[in-house]
Amino acid sequence: MKTQEWIEPYAGFELTSTVLSVETSYQAEKLTALGIDPDYYCGWVDPAFFIGISIQAGIDSGISAEGNVNMLTRLKVLRAPKLDEPMRVKGNIESVTEVPRGLRISTNVTFETTTGETLISVPRESLKPMAKAGDSSTASRGAGSRPPPVIQSISDLEIREDRELRPEQTLGYSREGNAIHYDEAVAQQAGFRAPIIGGGQGVHYLTRAFWKLGAQSDWEIYFRRPIFWDDHIQVGSLANHEGLALCRGEKVLTEVAVRS
Predict the structure, then answer these.
(1) Does 206 score more than 60 pLDDT?
(2) According to the model, what pLDDT value does residue 4 have?
(3) Which of 48, 67, 157, 179 has a CA that sits 20 to 30 A from residue 214's CA?
(4) DSSP 3-state of 219
């Protein structure tokens, strides 16, 4: 079998433009695997799917996601798409910056109707870890500038729900492309005690609790700490709903600054 030849990411790289849709059956399968009732969305696409779709657009264009860590994703929704609605996907790598842990990559992916109306833009910041000559086992953890926290204290949150994650949920949700989400050996080699869920998987719990479908919304999502596939997590928000979070104990795992 021919080995995939990946392209080293570089600023200005254009993703291959394609037309796709989020099918009703696909959304039902993936949300059901996570314990979320797909009927809640009443024919709309859960916007959390666009995190994974934007990553897949890079994979399909020849940019590997294997071992990469999602740091920041922005979901800027001008109009939420309907299930089975055709969308054109376009995007590019805006910058590649060397940091102590590897490469910090900024990518922007947009989703348009077939007539050119922009539906969603998904700018992303991800880390591609890279070993360097002379690195010790305690290499620097630096990944570039770290935005200030959205949630100052867990005590500020109103907890909406608790969720017990199970490995079979992540196995049912994940797709090939980054084995740290579904392969225990690969996750442990990367320094994790167990597979970690993909950023988009966690965001589904936030969109289910807080997203008003069909409306314009702008979320800046920060992936602060890994969420393991067997974690107990809580879903909460600030009283004004300008900050949302997934947390474990006293730790914020994923947090959102709601811009509109």
Answers:
(1) yes
(2) 73
(3) 157
(4) strand
For residue 96, the Cα-to-chain-centroid distance in whole angstroms is 19
Supply the angle between the helices 199-210 and 49-60 in degrees, to the nearest 10.
Answer: 150
In residues, how long is the chain? 260
Tell me the one-letter amino acid at 139.
A
> Where do the domains of the chain lie?
18-134+148-258
If pLDDT is split at 50, 70 and 90, which confidence band does 56 have?
very high
Is the C-alpha dihedral spanning 184, 98, 144, 61 positive or negative? Answer: negative
Q: Which residues contact 101 (CB under 8 A, 6 or more apart)?
A: 127, 129, 130, 139, 140, 141, 142, 143
- At 189 the three-state DSSP class reads helix
CB-based burial, 61-89: b 16+ in 10 Å, e otherwise: bebbbebbbbbbbbbbbeebbebebebbb
**What's at 131, amino acid-wise?**
A
Q: For residue 143, how far is the Cα from the chain centroid?
A: 17
